[in-house]
Structure to design on (972 residues):
C-alpha cells in the first residue's frame, strides 16, 4: 500500500503524542468514556490484559499463592485504622455516601488498594503458626481520584491491578517472600520482554504504611522512568492495628509480619512504549492475542481455493497450540498488512495460489520487517522458532534500553555535562545520605531520587560501590539513582 | 470417622439453615466482611466461579461475542437517559459523591448493570450496517443496595455478573440473538448440571426498559424458584435515548435493535442448593476445582513409599488433564474424607500399600457413596468414565427436580387441594389474561406469577395449551406458571 493512503502518521520521536495515537489506532483502549481517566477495555486490549494476568496467575500459583477476591467497598472505620496509610490516600479515594435514596451511616470508599479490606479478615484467618505463611493474591480494579493528567494504562482512575498479600511468622520469612516476589517479577518481565530495575525507594517516597518499598521501574523512550510495580515490607505495621496475630509454637501470641506486591495495567503501557515503533505496537509473542495473522492472497478465479486452504491452515495451527487470526475481510492485502502491523501481530503469514502449489507460506516478521518462505511440512517447528526469535529480539532490545539508559556519574559537573551533551536517562551516583545533598543533586540535574538500586534479583541486597557523594564529595558506598518519572 | 466427631450437623430438610451452614463449612464464601451482603471469595469458592466463567466465555467466544470491560462508575447524567430504567434502579444504586476531599460536580453511581455505561460508547462504535451485529459481553461485579435479607451467592450487594449486550440491524436479527442466548443457557446448564426453565415474565415483572424478558429459573429444594439469569429484548428502547444508529444498506439511518443476557454468581448458589446433601456440597465434574482428591493411606514403615507413589499418581493424572488435589496433611484419612466430602470433590482416590502392590487404586464416588477398585493400567479411561457417570447422575437428578417440581393444574380447587396434600412446587395452569384473575390466583395459591413457559430452547415460542382460565373458566390457550421465588 502506498504511504499516502495511511490514515495517520505515527512518529515515535515525539513520544507523548505517538503514545496517545498508537493506543487509539491499535484499538487498545477506548478513551471516549464520559469520565476522565476511566477508559473502556476494547476486545483487543482486554485480550492482552488477560494474557498478562494469566502469566501472573501462573507464577503466583506455582509459588503457592491462593487467589481470592475481596469486596470493592471498604468502611471508613476500617480504613482509618492505620494512620500513615490514611494520610497517604486521603486525597485520592472515591467516597460512596448514599445507597439508593438513603445516606449511609458509615461512608464507604472504593479500594485504592486492599490492605484495609483484607486485614480485618486476615485477623480471623490467622490463628496459629500452622496457618502461616498465608499467601494470597487478587486481580481486581482499584480506584484513585487522580488530579494529574491521565494517560491510558499509565495514569488512570480505574486501574486494573494485581496485589499479593502475605503473612509470615517472622521478619526473616517475610524477607524471603520479598525475594520470591523479585523472582516472580523477573519471570513476568522476561515473558513480557520488559526491561526493569529493582530500586529501593528513599524513605520519603515509600508506600503509605510500609517499612520499606522496592519499586519496579522501567525506562520509557521519553527517558522517564515508569513504576510498573512495587514490593513492600510492612513488618508489623498493619498487623498491629488490624490485630493479625497467631499462637506461635512457643505458646505465645505474636503479630504477623506482612508483605505486599502490586503490579498494574502499566505493564501494558510499558510494552506499548518500549516496543512500539512508527508502524504501531509490537506484541511480545507470549502475550500477543494473535501470534500469527493469516492473509490470504486472493487471485482471480482462485479465491475460493485460497480461502479454503487458509482456513485449513488456521485449523492446523490452532491445533498446534498457536493463537491465529485469519483475516477474511474483503479488502486489499496491503490494507490488511497495515492494520495488523499497527496492532503488532508478531508474524504475518501470506498464502496465495503459488504458495499452495509449492507447499510453502510466507512469514513476515513484525519486529524486523523480514520475510521468509516456510515449508508447510516443517510448519510447527518453524513457527515455534520464529516466535522464539522474536521473543529474543524483543528481550535484547529491552536489555539495551536499560544498558544504554543508565549512566554512572561521579560529580555534579560530570552529570550536568552529560545531560548537556544530549544524552538523557537514569543517573547513577554516590550519595552521602544528607538531605541537603539530595536536594542539591535533584535541583542541579533536574531529576528526582528514584532510590537505591538492588544488587540483583535474588539477594535482597542494595548495590554498594565505593565513591564520593555527588554533591559534597564525602566518601560513601551508597549508590542512588535519579530520574524523571511518570 | 465416627459420626460424633463431626463438627457440624448438616440437615438439608431444613434447607435455609442447611444452605447457610454448608456455604460456611465447605469454605465457599467468607461472610464475616464488615459490610452486610458483601462477601469475600475464598480460594475454593473463587476457583469454582472461575470455572463457571470459563464455560460462559467458551460459549460466548464460540458464538462470536467479543469480551470487553467497561468502567464501574456511571455519570448520573448518562444513567438518567432512559426513563423506565432509572425508575427500576433508583432505589438500589450506590452513589459516589466525593473524590478525595472534593464534592464531585456530577455524582457517579456504581453500575447495577451496564446498559448506561456501554450505550454512549456503542453510539460511537455503531455507524454502519457493516458494524452489525455488535456482540459483546463482560464479566464484572455489579452493585445493588439490597434492603432484603442477604444470602451468599443468592442475594448479595456486590454481585459477580456476566452480561452480554448486542446490537442488530433488525428486530428479526435481535430475535435470533435471543434464541442463541437460550441455546447458550442450555449448554451452560448442561455443564453445570443445573435444571432450569425458560419463562417469559409477565409485563409487570420485566426488566426496567425491556420490551420483554425471558427469565431463566431453577427450582430450589425449598420449592422456591431462583432466577439464574435473564434475557431481554430491548428493541429500540435504549438505542433511541442513547442515539445508537447506523446507516443501512438503503442509505438511511436506523436505530439499532438491542438485546442483553445476564447471569450471575447465583449459578453457584443453585449448584450448592440443588446438588448438596447432608454430607456437604457436590461439585459437578466440569466445574469442580479438584475432580479427584488423592488420600494416601499411610501404613507403618511404608508412609514414605505410599506418599511417593501418591505424588507420582498426582503427576500422572495432572498430565492426563485432570484437576487433582493430593492431601498430604498429617491427619487421619477419616478426617480427610470428611473434609473433602463437605467440599464436594467428585471422586476420592485412596491409595495404600496393598493397592500399590496390586497396581490398583480405590475410587469413591461422592454422589453415590460407592467404591470400586480401578486398575492403574486403565486409569485414564476409568477416570474419564467415572467423571462422565457422575455428570450424568447429577444431570438426571437435575431433570427429576424439574419433572417432579412442576404440576399442571386445571382449577383453583385442584390447585389448593394439591398444595394441601403436602406437594409443593411450580403450578402450571391456564390464564385468560385478566389482571383480576391473576390476582385471585396468586392469592388463592399463595404464589406469584413466574410467567409464561417457553415451548422449548430453540423456537422462541411460548408454550400453548387449550384449557380454561384457572380463575374464571374462560377458554384460553395461554399457559402460565406460578411459584414462590427468591
Amino acid at each position: 500500500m502506498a504511504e499516502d493512503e495511511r490514515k495517520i502518521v505515527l512518529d515515535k520521536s515525539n513520544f507523548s503524542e505517538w503514545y496517545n495515537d498508537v493506543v487509539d489506532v491499535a484499538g487498545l483502549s477506548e478513551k471516549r468514556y464520559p469520565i476522565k481517566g476511566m477508559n473502556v477495555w476494547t476486545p483487543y486490549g482486554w485480550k492482552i490484559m488477560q494474557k498478562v494476568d494469566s502469566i501472573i496467575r501462573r507464577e503466583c500459583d506455582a509459588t503457592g499463592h491462593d487467589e481470592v477476591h475481596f469486596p470493592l467497598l471498604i468502611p471508613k472505620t476500617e480504613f482509618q485504622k492505620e494512620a500513615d496509610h490514611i494520610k497517604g490516600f486521603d486525597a485520592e479515594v472515591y467516597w460512596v455516601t448514599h445507597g439508593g435514596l438513603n445516606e449511609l451511616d458509615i461512608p464507604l470508599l472504593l479500594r485504592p488498594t486492599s490492605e484495609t479490606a483484607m486485614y480485618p479478615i486476615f485477623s480471623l484467618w490467622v490463628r496459629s503458626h500452622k496457618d502461616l505463611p498465608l499467601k494470597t493474591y487478587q486481580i481486581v480494579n482499584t480506584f484513585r481520584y487522580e488530579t494529574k493528567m491521565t494517560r491510558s494504562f499509565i495514569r488512570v482512575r480505574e486501574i486494573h491491578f494485581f496485589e499479593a498479600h502475605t503473612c509470615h511468622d517472622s521478619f526473616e520469612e517475610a524477607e524471603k517472600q520479598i525475594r520470591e516476589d523479585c523472582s516472580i517479577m523477573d519471570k513476568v518481565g522476561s515473558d513480557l520482554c520488559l526491561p526493569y530495575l529493582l530500586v529501593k525507594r528513599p524513605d520519603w517516597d515509600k508506600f503509605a504504611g510500609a517499612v520499606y518499598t522496592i519499586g519496579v521501574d522501567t525506562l520509557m523512550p521519553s527517558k522517564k522512568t515508569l513504576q510498573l510495580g512495587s514490593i513492600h515490607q510492612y513488618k508489623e505495621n498493619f498487623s498491629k492495628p488490624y490485630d493479625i496475630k497467631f499462637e506461635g509454637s512457643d505458646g505465645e501470641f505474636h503479630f504477623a509480619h506482612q508483605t505486599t506486591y502490586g503490579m498494574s495495567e502499566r505493564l501494558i503501557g510499558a510494552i506499548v512504549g518500549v516496543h512500539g515503533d512508527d508502524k504501531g505496537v509490537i506484541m511480545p509473542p507470549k502475550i500477543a492475542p494473535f501470534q500469527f495473522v493469516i492473509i490470504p492472497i486472493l487471485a482471480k478465479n482462485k479465491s475460493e481455493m485460497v480461502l479454503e486452504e487458509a482456513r485449513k491452515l488456521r485449523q492446523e495451527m490452532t491445533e498446534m497450540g498457536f493463537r491465529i487470526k485469519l483475516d477474511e475481510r474483503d479488502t486489499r492485502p496491503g490494507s490488511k498488512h497495515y492494520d495488523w502491523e499497527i496492532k503488532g501481530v508478531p508474524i504475518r503469514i501470506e498464502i496465495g495460489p503459488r504458495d499452495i502449489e509449492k507447499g510453502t507460506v510466507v512469514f513476515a516478521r513484525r519486529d524486523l520487517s523480514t520475510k521468509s518462505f516456510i515449508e508447510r511440512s516443517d510448519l510447527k517447528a518453524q513457527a515455534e522458532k520464529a516466535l522464539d526469535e522474536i521473543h529474543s529480539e524483543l528481550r535484547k532490545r529491552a536489555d539495551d534500553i536499560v544498558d544504554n539508559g543508565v549512566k554512572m556519574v561521579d560529580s555534579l559537573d560530570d552529570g550536568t555535562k552529560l545531560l548537556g551533551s544530549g544524552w538523557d536517562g537514569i543517573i547513577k551516583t554516590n550519595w552521602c545520605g544528607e538531605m541537603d545533598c539530595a536536594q542539591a543533586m535533584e535541583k542541579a540535574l533536574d531529576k528526582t531520587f528514584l532510590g537505591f538500586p538492588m544488587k540483583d534479583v535474588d539477594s535482597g541486597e542494595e548495590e554498594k560501590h565505593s565513591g564520593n557523594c555527588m554533591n559534597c564529595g564525602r566518601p560513601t558506598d551508597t549508590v542512588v539513582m535519579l530520574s524523571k518519572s511518570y
User: Anything to note?
Assistant: DSSP finds 13 helices and 24 strands in chain B.
